[in-house]
Amino acid sequence: MDEYAGPVLAERYRLPRRPAGGGPKSPDGPFAGQPAAVRALDGYSGQQVLIRQVPLPEVVDAEVVAADGAGAEGAGAYGAGAYGDPADGRAEDGFGRGRGPAGADRSPRDPLARRALEAATAAAQLPDHPLLEQVFDVFAQDGSLWIVGEALPARPLAALLAERPLGPHRAAEIAADLLTALRALHAHGWLHRNVTAGTVLVCDDGRAVLTGLAAGAAQEALCGYDPRPGAPAAAARPAGGPAGLAAERAVQARLHLVGAVTERWAPELAGPADGGGPAGPAADLWAVGALLFRAVQGRPPFPEESAGELVRLVRATPPAAAAECGVLRPVVEALLSADPAGRPGSGEVLARLRELLRGAPEPDPGRGLVTVPALAGAGDPRRLPVLRRRGEVVRQGRRAPVRTARPPRLPRQSGPGRPGRVPAAVPEPDGPVRVGAGPAAGRGPRAPRSLGRVLLAVILLLMVAGIAYAAVFLPKSGADAAGGPDGADRSGTPGGAPGRSPAPAPGGTGGPTPPRTTATAAPGFTLRTDPLGFSTAVPDGWQRAGADRGGARYTGGGLTLLVVPGRDTTARFGADPMAYQQTGEPELAAYRASEWSTVAGLRRIDVGQTAMAEGTFTWKDRGGRQVYARNLAMIRDGRYHLVLVTGPVTGRAAVDRVYARASSAYRPG
Question: Which of 114, 217, 506, 605 has CB 3.0 to 4.6 Å from 119, enough for a Cys bridge?
C-alpha cells in the first residue's frame, strides 16, 4: 500500500506516488504529473491494473449544428461542452475542476466526451483474445478519459528498440503475433488505428500483445470520427459549409492529438483535403509495415520532426528504402505501398512471415553448447562430434584409485568405500552385512556395469561382422575398382574428360571436410582434380566452363556446380561462416538483391578448429526464373572455401544429389 499512496480514481483505483518527473503529463488538477500509462492497485480486487489517460479537450473551436437544425449538439474536432449546469451541483466546466465535487462520470453530458467514452467502451466489449489486451473499465474524471486494462508482465516494444534494433527474424515473430491479433479485430469489423511501438507489449514468454485499441478509439472520436464498425468516416459535418470542411478539421485535430507517429498516418488516413476514401484494414497493415521498418532499421521510414511535414511526405513521397531489413525487405516494401489496394492481405503477409521463420537460423546455444575436444594425435577432422542435449550428463568413467598420501577433502563413511561416495551395503543370505563396492560385493552397483560391458562387446562384434561382410561381398564403386567402369586408367590427369578419375594423393589432404560419410566419387560421378588445386566429385558428362572470380564452374543438365577454393579471407569477412553466407558471399549476391527470396536449413557446424555453414537458398533472378541453390562455406587456414550448386526450383532433387556428392568429396589443394 505504501507504493500506491497517490490519488484514487473512481474511488477504487489507487495510483502510485507522483513521479519525480518525465513522461507525458495530465491536465491541470489533482492528478497533474501522472504519466499517460501507469500501474495502479484495484482496491476492490487487490490486483494490479494498468490505467491509460486520454485528456479531453477544453477549448471550443467550432459549434456543430444538428442535422435537423435543433441547435448546438457537439463540437467539431475540438469542441467541449459541460457535463451539467453549475446549478446542478456538479463541476462547473464539466471536467471536475469547478466548484462541484469531482468524481467518476460514466455518462457525461458533453457530446464529444460522451462519444469518446462510448467508443472506448465499445472497443472494450470485444471478445477476449490471447494477443489482445483486456479492458476492464472506462470512465471520465478530472478532465480526462481513463481506461483500465490488465497489467501484463511485459515491456513496451519502444523500450526494447531504445536499447537496440531487432533482427529480421525476431521482428517477423512479433509481426506474426500482431497480424493474428489484427485479423481477430478485422473479423469483428474494427480497425485498430493505433499500432505503434508504444502499444505493442513484448511479454516475458516472448509473445507480443497488442494494446491501445480503446485509447485509440477514444482519440479518433475526439477528432470527429466514429471508429465503431459501420459508422461513417466523419461524425459531424458543418451546416452550410463545404462538404470537405469537417474532414479537413478532423485531419487537423488528428495532427494535434496523434502527432508525428508514422505508424498512425497511412496515406488514406492522411489523405487529401476532401477526406479521401474510407480507411480499411489496409491502414493497419501499413502500420505493421512501418513498425517493422522501425524495429529492424532503428528509424522510421519517414522523418518525424513535424506532424504536418510527416503527413505531407506520406501523401506525396515514397518511404525510405528498406535496405537493412534483409529477408524482411519484400514484406516491408509491400506493406508500405501508397495504394491500399496494392498492399497484401493480412493472411498473405502472415503466411510469408511464417515461411520466413521456418528458414530462420538456429539460435546461438551459448552456455548450452557442449564442446568436445579433439584427441591429441588421434583426431580425425572428418568425424563429427557427438551432439548432446542441454542438461544431459556426460559420464567421465571410473575414478582413479585414491592415493593414501592425499586424503580426500569430502567426508567419507567408515569402511572401504570410495571417497565422497556412500558405500553400498549388500546383505548376504547367510552371513553378516558386507560393505564395499569391489568384486567381493557380488550383487551391487557393479552388476549394471558388467551388463553394460557385455552389451558393448556384443555391439562391437556385430559392427566388425558388418564391416567384414561389406568389404567382401558388396561391389566397389567405379572410382575404387581397377581401371574404372570404362577400363580407363585410374591415374587420369587433372581436369580430364569424364570417365577418368584421378588417384587421390597418398594419405589424402588431411584437411577438414564437410560432415559427409563418403569421401570418394559415387556411381555416376567422377573424382576430378581441378587446375586450381582442389578435387571434388563431378557428375559424369559435365564440362568445366572455366574459372569465375577465383572459382571453377562445371555445368550439365541445366545445373551449375561452382567451387571457390580459398578466395576470401576471414580477415576481411570475419570468422562466422553463417554471417558470411548471409551478408558477404559474392556468389549469393543475387539472393540478397532479389525481391523474392527464402532461406532454409541454415546451420553452422564446428569440427575441431574448422567452422562450416550450409543452407538452402531460393530466389527469383532478373528473368523471373526461380533459382534453387545449396551452399557450403568452410573456413580452412583463414580462408573461405565454397561449394555452390544451383538450378531451377523444379530440379530440387538433382541439385540436392549433386551438392551431397560434391561437398562430401571436396578436398582443398
Answer: 217
Q: Helix, strand or coil for residue 283?
A: helix
Q: Which residues contact 203 (CB under 8 A, 6 or more apart)?
A: 152, 153, 154, 209
Residue 48: the pLDDT is 92
Q: Which three cell numbers stand for residue 256?
A: 494535434
CA distances for 129 relative to 189, 202, 280, angstroms: 15, 16, 21
Provide the whole-model pTM. 0.51
DSSP state for residue 395 in the 8-state scheme: -
DSSP 278: P
The rounded distance, in Å, linking the Cα atoms of 646 and 494 is 24
Question: Between residues 300 and 512, which one has the greater pLDDT?
Answer: 300
3-state secondary structure 13-58: EECCCCCCCCCCCCCCCCCCCCCCEEEEEECCCCCEEEEEEEECCC
Provide CB contacts within 8 A for 506, sequence distance 6+: none
Please answer whether residues 73 and 66 qualify as being in contact, where contact means their C-beta atoms are separated by less than 8 angstroms: yes
Set of cell numbers at residue 54: 486520454
Q: Of 56, 48, 51, give the one whose Cα is nearest residue 34.
A: 51
Q: pLDDT tens-digit profile of 326-360?
A: 999 999 999 999 999 999 999 999 999 999 998 88
Cell numbers placing 84? 451539467
Whether residue 43 has pLDDT greater than 60: yes
Q: What are the cell numbers at 129?
A: 483474445
Full 3-state SS string of 314-372: HHHCCCCCCHHHHHHHHHHHHHCCCCHHHCCCHHHHHHHHHHHHHCCCCCCCHHHCCCC
Please write the tens of the pLDDT for every residue from 96-105.
333 233 468 8
Residues 278, 281: Cα–Cα separation, whole Å: 10
pLDDT digits (tens, 9 = 90+) for 460-495: 889 988 888 777 666 554 434 333 333 333 333 333
Strand, coil or helix: what is 123? Answer: helix
Say if residues 74 and 114 touch (Cβ distance below 8 Å).
no
Query: What's the confidence (pLDDT) of residue 254?
Result: 87
Tell me, what's the pLDDT at 346? 92
Cα–Cα distance measured from residue 548 to residue 586, given in angstroms and rounded to the nearest whole number: 11
Res 140 pLDDT > 60 = yes
pLDDT at 125: 92
Beta pairing partners, 644: 562, 631
Half-sphere exposure of 529 (CA within 13 A, CB side): 14
Tell me how far apart the 2 most distant CA atoms of the chain are, in Å.
115
Q: At what angle do helices 346-358 and 281-297 cross, to 10 degrees?
A: 30
For residue 440, give every residue at least 6 positions away whose Cβ sits within 8 Å of its Cβ, in sequence order, or none: 434
Residue type, 187: A
Helices and strands, number each (H, E), in the chain: 15, 22
| Helix or strand (DSSP H, E) at 607 | strand 597-607
